[in-house]
Amino acid sequence: MKIVLLGATGLTGRLLLKQLLSRGIKPVLVGRNRDKLLSLSQQYGGLDVGIADAQDFTSLSNLLNKGDLLISTVGPFCELGEVPLRVAVEKGAHYMDSTGEPAFIASVYDQYEKRLENTSTVILTACGFDYVPGQLVGAKLAQELGAEVATLNISYAQPNGGIVRLSAGTKSSLVKGLFERGTFYNNKQWREDFLGEKTHSIVAGDNKIKVISVSGSECFELPRMYPTLDNVNVYLGWFGPLGGLVSCISRLQQKLLKIPGYLKMMQALAARVQFPAINVEKITAKDEGGSLVVAEAFDSNGKLIKQCTLSGHNMYYYTGEIMAWIVSKIQRGEIKACGVVGPVRAFGLEALEQAHIDIGFSVH
Q: Which residues contact 310 (CB under 8 A, 6 or more apart)?
């Protein structure tokens, strides 16, 4: 099996490459800048290189064979993600990506879930901190409590309730996401809405953290695994003490979106927003900040039954680690379910939990 790493010279690509090599996996480094690729290749002893543009179906297709694995780390995925995914599907290759963009996640399920039923390939979207850990803790509660659970709330934050330091790419995706519809799961139905339409609060130590609703892959995967669930809500709490202000802005946003022309205007402005580059070595260091994911199970009367918490180190560093683990499972053929699936269905709840423990995360 050939492992093809698209976007190898980018932030996520480099993080993933280090983790792959630590596992003895040598991918083919793929991108459009030959000089950057060759330089990166030489840093690691001369890895194989492939020159291809993420939007060029033919050049990508020429690098891939049936049964290979294409890893896409090239974003924004709503703009650049469809061609690599289509190439993998057409070639009969396995596929995984690092997206956190709700609209792209929805498109993967909408376009390919039915088509790829009963195939031998696995298609995994959103394989990083967005939104693998939430699927783990949510599935852990749903598996343990069964039909007693009506609603799962899954919240992402920092352990100390602080503001998460984000890369320029993550900030850009977040801004654009404010004006894109995502898929939510409520009252046993999937529906479309905007980020921030609901707010919630979680407690982390002595901190009460305000979180706002987002469309995560948990909204797709958990109801498919546990059809007795009525609601799956995903929340983001990266804003620290500004959480209250952000929730107020979110409520205002819901009203503004009803004004004719407002959405198109804001989408156009969001597309032009550029954030200055920051020290990526610092914000992706293992000990920079921390990660906290809280799953809460409620019964049909809204009573909290049980909580499951996942905590550990930097979310960017985690993304490289967990994606490398997923690659290793696919490479060894240790796949429990194929088609468009999440990591719990693909590899099993027990294996996914152990993977988190092995990289130093705590699940309790």
A: 133, 136, 137, 291, 292, 293, 294, 356, 361, 362, 363
pLDDT of residue 277: 66
Q: Give pLDDT tens digits for 212-264.
A: 899 999 999 999 999 999 999 999 988 777 767 777 777 787 788 889 998 88
Q: What is the pTM of this model?
A: 0.94
Backbone angles phi, psi at 231, to 5 degrees: -140, 140
Strand (E) or helix (H) holding 15: helix 11-22
| 176: Cα within 13 Å, side-chain hemisphere | 22
Task: Report the DSSP beta bridge partners of residue 336.
Answer: none
Question: In this structure, how many other beta carbons lie within 10 angstroms of the beta carbon of residue 213?
Answer: 23
CA atoms within 13 A on the CB side of 149: 26
For the chain, list the domains and their CATH numbers.
3-128+318-363 (3.40.50.720), 132-313 (3.30.360.10)
The angle subtended at Cα 188 by Cα 183 and Cα 194, nearest 5°, is 25
CB of 125 closer than 8 Å to CB of 215: no
